[in-house]
Backbone:
């Protein structure tokens, strides 16, 4: 199997300058490899650093030490060393990140939000919107809402719009942070199907699933993050 | 990786004995939006004016790549060359629209001025462009012959943007573009700026003290304090995991709605 992501000896510590320079170690010496077509479910107790690991890979949290290499356009890019414009390019074409929280922008309609990642990649506007429509139909967002800003949508609707956005462009590597949390059974199944389809199409995925059944339904293996804090 | 459109190296500026910027270096790539955040007096606007060629730094260099050209040092260009750039490839959106508009000529003339400055003489074309741009910034085309002073603050700000973008600049400098506007107008303006930057593929440098504005518009941020850059990085990185003590203070001071 071809590796797409290699994390070697990575550590992450937060330093809270304003609170007496308190240092909080999230993890240390972490090694992890993700291969094409693999779906890894992260497990570990709350506070073990599951979400932090995803943010570390995505470049939102700077890496303390070690390397986080991702295969991008047939080359390896070390997120720990890459400059912002390289990370932006990686995010545009290679690395997707889906949470349960939609970042609503006032006045931007739902359909635009979902189509945007494709448009940014240079896909034709109409084709991007057609793909966005398909996803919104699958995720049961009523058509009359498509032209509205999701600002006034319910929490569940916003979450589904965000998932549609995360899946509109297919990313070779996808990070999922509790995508199924608090969804009703029907929509939960749609999301699980979307994940399985992407993985079957060759995407690699790392996900955090609160529900063990969801994790079992999509994950091809598990990775346990041991809390270095509770161990210390 | 693409060539930068704008570069500065080791910019230092003093107003008399007062240091305003110290040892600042940065690159801006085509299509990138860079946010400059920090408290008032931190040197944001000084840096912006230096990058836009309006202020000559005490020390350091600024270089700009013209369309199809390579990086050229601003201080090696002649005054007329820089003025031409400022009217064609650059745009500067002031915090106060009265600084960027001519208040005693009509809205249409405000938009047409930059076109005339680059040699456009066909009245019909200029007027058509003015109508087009009024629509782009959501101002009723019937207001084309009205004076900007009869416009609301939000409309004046949108008119200033239209006036600036009519010559299809490649690089836009914005100084607190939403400062002083009420929030509903801000949202409209931000959405407009965001849309224009994306559809036109502009590069931009945006000075703001509002972190929400920075998050919405920029892909990259620099945080300034006391004339120095204390942190720079991806917007989400700086806002979600700030490293410098001052950035942590700035981010932790945001009020939750």
Residues:
């Amino acid at each position: 199997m071809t590796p797409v992501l290699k994390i070697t000896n990575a550590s992450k510590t937060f330093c809270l300058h304003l609170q007496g320079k308190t240092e909080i170690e999230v993890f240390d010496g972490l090694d992890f490899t993700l291969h094409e077509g693999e779906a890894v479910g992260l497990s570990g107790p709350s506070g073990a650093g599951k979400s932090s690991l995803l943010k570390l890979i995505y470049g939102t949290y700077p890496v303390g030490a070690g390397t986080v290499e991702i295969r991008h356009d047939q080359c390896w890019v070390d997120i720990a060393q890459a400059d912002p414009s390289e990370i932006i390019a990686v995010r545009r074409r290679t690395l997707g990140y889906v949470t349960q929280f939609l970042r609503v922008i006032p006045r931007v309609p739902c359909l635009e939000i979902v189509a945007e990642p494709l448009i940014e990649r240079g896909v034709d506007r109409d084709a991007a919107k057609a793909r966005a429509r398909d996803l919104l139909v699958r995720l049961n967002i009523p058509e009359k809402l498509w032209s509205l800003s999701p600002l006034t949508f319910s929490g569940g609707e916003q979450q589904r719009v965000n998932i549609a956005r995360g899946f509109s462009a297919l990313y070779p590597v996808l990070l999922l942070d509790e995508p199924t949390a608090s969804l009703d059974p029907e929509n939960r199944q749609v999301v699980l199907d979307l994940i399985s389809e992407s993985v079957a199409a060759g995407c690699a995925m790392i996900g955090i699933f609160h529900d063990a059944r969801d994790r079992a339904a999509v994950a091809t293996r598990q990775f346990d993050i041991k809390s270095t804090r509770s161990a210390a | 990786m693409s060539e930068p459109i704008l570069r500065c190296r080791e910019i230092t500026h003093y107003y008399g004995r007062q240091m305003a910027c110290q040892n600042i270096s940065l690159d801006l790539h085509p299509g990138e939006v860079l946010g400059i955040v920090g408290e008032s007096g931190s040197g944001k606007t000084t840096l912006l004016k230096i990058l836009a060629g309006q202020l000559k730094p005490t020390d350091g260099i600024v270089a700009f790549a013209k369309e199809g050209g390579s990086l050229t040092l601003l201080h090696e260009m002649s005054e007329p060359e820089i003025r031409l750039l400022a009217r064609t490839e650059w745009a500067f959106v002031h915090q106060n629209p009265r600084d960027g508009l001519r208040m005693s000529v009509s809205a249409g003339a405000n938009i047409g001025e930059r076109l005339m400055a680059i040699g456009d003489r066909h009245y019909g074309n200029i007027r058509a462009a003015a109508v087009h741009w009024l629509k782009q910034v959501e101002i009723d085309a019937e207001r084309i012959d009205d004076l900007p002073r009869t416009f609301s603050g939000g409309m004046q700000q949108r008119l200033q943007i239209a006036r600036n973008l009519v010559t299809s600049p490649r690089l836009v400098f914005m100084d607190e573009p939403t400062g002083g506007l009420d929030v509903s107008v801000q949202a409209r303006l931000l959405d407009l700026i965001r849309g224009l930057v994306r559809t036109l593929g502009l590069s931009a440098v945006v000075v703001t003290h509002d972190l929400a504005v920075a998050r919405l518009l920029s892909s990259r941020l620099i945080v300034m304090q006391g004339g120095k850059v204390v942190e720079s990085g991806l917007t989400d990185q700086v806002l979600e995991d700030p490293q410098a003590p001052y950035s942590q203070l700035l981010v932790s001071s945001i009020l939750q709605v």
